[in-house]
């Protein structure tokens, strides 16, 4: 009974973070639509180039802190070593302030050099405005890790939502205010919202900490006599030993974005494009293709996150049957969302861009050709999470590095061809994630001895998606001919496509009771569907 409660709590806390992640992603997508319509593809290119530089320095300064802190704090809390747990918080704060300050200073004073080195001098102001945010987010990471270590995901979840709301509002507002001074300033205005959002999230977490601090101190005094104090040096050494491998793995994925920033711009310029056109093409890649394809990936992995954390406990308890069920469930949920997203964007990518960005609709071919990356990136994400759950944390980093090598090679070969240009970066991205996803899947099978059920995980979602794609294409062309309105044709086709997809899934028994129960009010929905004989018991 006790173990069951513990597992339920674990999944519940993970589900809270997953729900917050879903909301944050949707908000992030929604504000990019008006932002892109203001600053255009050229402004998007400058905005994203600066943002990827910022993300790389952010990864180096604080990416591994939340996971490392939460692990160390939870271990000490379990042993009722509350003073040592708080010392982890104190040491981590010192580390975060140091690394965050260094990152901010490097980005502030090196903004001009960095912008020129990636062949995007217009991103200078955006890099400058993002630089203080590195320190803010590094400090915020410590608070989040500390709360998560105490098995409380609510402060992290709420702070993420608050952060994104303020980010969305001020990114659009500041871009609107500054775009009149030029595209470079409009892009910089968009990046200002990132810092403002992060600061509000930090204020919320600091307020929560101050509210609970008296009870934390009281608990420390109560159990102090039974506790052997750890030195600050011991804690700092352990923190770095855990954080550095995580940072390394995350940095590799961040570097693949920097590869695109540098190689896309330099290869386009080398093949004869001027700076403005190169920025426009890169803006289509980063502000449309990457934005739209990563949205379903984040939703899929957010839902799967609610299942994955308990895999580690089942492995430890030597429950191979339970582990097999959880791995198949996590992968099936991911593919149930990734497959239709891939087919849907391949069919309706161009019309979606016309609907969302009427002033700057270019880039549809990128989605048509490159939507397959959604499946492989989703596969890489979920297998990475499973590998981390079974303790193989370094393998995904190695596989990501191998994928990045393939990306560099194909970027160089394809982008410089004028007839292909930025589409080469899309093709190389597909190859990168295909390689990383396949290697992670193979490593997962080797690590667990479990082969996912190919029929339920891949074949059935693919068949349903294919049927949906045909209906969506026919429906769009028919409605466009009748109404001559792209928005009506696109939205109607999407809605019909969703019904067709799930209808085919139910017909071929491609969705299970466990899948439905992952949704909000899932148990009630599954019970009603069983009653109506739409679902098997």
Structural class: mainly alpha
Regions with little confidence, pLDDT below 50 for 5+ residues:
1-10
How does the overall form come out from the CA principal axes?
A: globular
Portion of residues in beta strands equals under 5%
> Distance between the terminal alpha carbons, to the nearest Å?
24 Å
Work out the radius of gyration. 24 Å
* Most strands sheet: none
* Helical coverage, percent range: over 70%
- Oligomer designation: single chain
Number of strands: 0
SSE ordering: HHHHHHHHHHHHHHHHHHH
Total number of helices? 19
Mean pLDDT: 85
Which terms would index this structure?
single chain; 537 residues; mainly alpha; globular; disordered N terminus
Task: Walk me through the structure.
With 537 residues, the chain is an all-alpha fold. Residues 1-10 have low confidence and may be disordered. The chain has a domain at 1-230. Helix 14 runs antiparallel to helix 15 (423-448). The chain contains 19 helices and no strands. It has helices spanning 2-62, 65-78, 82-109, 111-117, 124-149, 154-178, 183-223, 232-270, 275-305, 310-316, 320-356, 364-370, 373-389, 394-415, 423-448, 454-483, 486-507, 513-516, 522-531.
Outline the secondary-structure elements:
Elements: H1 2-62, H2 65-78, H3 82-109, H4 111-117, H5 124-149, H6 154-178, H7 183-223, H8 232-270, H9 275-305, H10 310-316, H11 320-356, H12 364-370, H13 373-389, H14 394-415, H15 423-448, H16 454-483, H17 486-507, H18 513-516, H19 522-531
Helix pairs in contact: 1-3, 1-5, 1-6, 1-7, 1-8, 1-9, 2-3, 2-5, 2-8, 3-5, 3-8, 4-5, 5-7, 6-7, 8-9, 8-14, 9-11, 9-12, 9-13, 10-11, 11-12, 11-13, 11-16, 11-17, 12-15, 13-15, 14-15, 16-17
């Amino acid at each position: 009974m006790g173990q069951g409660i513990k597992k339920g709590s674990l999944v519940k806390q993970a589900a809270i973070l997953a729900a917050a992640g879903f909301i944050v992603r949707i908000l992030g997508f929604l504000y990019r639509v008006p932002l892109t319509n203001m600053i255009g593809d050229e402004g998007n290119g400058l905005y994203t180039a600066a943002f990827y530089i910022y993300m790389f320095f952010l990864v180096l300064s604080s990416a591994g802190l939340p996971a490392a802190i939460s692990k160390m704090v939870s271990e000490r809390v379990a042993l009722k070593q509350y003073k040592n747990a708080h010392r982890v918080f104190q040491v981590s704060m010192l580390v975060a302030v140091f690394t965050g300050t260094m990152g901010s200073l490097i980005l502030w004073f090196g903004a001009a050099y960095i912008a020129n080195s990636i062949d995007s001098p217009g991103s200078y102001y955006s890099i400058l405005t993002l630089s203080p945010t590195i320190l803010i987010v590094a400090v915020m990471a410590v608070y989040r890790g500390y709360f998560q270590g105490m098995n409380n995901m609510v402060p992290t979840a709420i702070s993420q939502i608050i952060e994104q709301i303020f980010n969305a509002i001020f990114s659009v507002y500041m871009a609107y205010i500054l775009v009149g001074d030029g595209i470079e300033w409009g892009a910089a205005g968009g990046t200002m919202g990132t810092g403002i959002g992060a600061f509000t999230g930090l204020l919320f977490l600091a307020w929560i900490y101050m509210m609970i601090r008296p009870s934390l101190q009281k608990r420390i005094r109560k159990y102090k006599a039974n506790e052997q104090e750890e030195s600050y040096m011991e804690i700092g050494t352990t923190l770095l030993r855990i954080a550095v491998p995580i940072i390394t793995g995350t940095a590799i994925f961040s570097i693949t974005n920097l590869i695109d920033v540098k190689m896309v711009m330099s290869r386009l310029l080398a093949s004869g494009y001027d700076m403005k056109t190169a920025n426009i093409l890169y803006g289509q890649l980063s502000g449309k293709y990457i934005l739209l394809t990563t949205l379903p990936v984040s939703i899929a992995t957010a839902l799967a996150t609610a299942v994955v954390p308990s895999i580690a406990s089942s492995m430890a308890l030597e429950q191979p049957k339970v582990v097999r069920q959880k791995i198949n469930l996590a992968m099936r949920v991911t593919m149930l969302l990734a497959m239709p997203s891939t087919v849907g964007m391949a069919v309706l990518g161009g019309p979606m861009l016309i609907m969302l960005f009427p002033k700057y609709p270019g880039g549809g071919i990128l989605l048509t050709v490159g939507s397959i990356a959604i499946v492989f990136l989703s596969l890489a994400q979920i297998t990475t999470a499973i590998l981390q759950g079974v303790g193989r944390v370094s393998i995904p980093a190695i596989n990501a590095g191998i994928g990045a090598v393939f990306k560099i090679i194909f970027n160089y070969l394809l982008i410089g061809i004028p007839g292909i240009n930025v589409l080469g970066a899309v093709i190389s991205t597909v190859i990168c994630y295909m390689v990383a996803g396949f290697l992670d899947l193979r490593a997962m099978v080797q690590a667990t001895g479990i082969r996912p059920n190919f029929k339920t995980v891949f074949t059935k979602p693919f068949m349903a998606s294919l049927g949906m794609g045909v209906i969506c294409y026919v429906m769009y062309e028919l409605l466009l001919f009748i109404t001559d309105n792209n928005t009506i044709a696109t939205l109607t086709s999407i809605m019909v496509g969703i019904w067709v997809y799930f209808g085919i899934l139910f017909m071929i028994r491609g969705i299970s009771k466990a899948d439905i129960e992952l949704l909000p009010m899932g148990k009630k929905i599954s019970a009603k569907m069983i009653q109506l004989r739409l679902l098997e018991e």
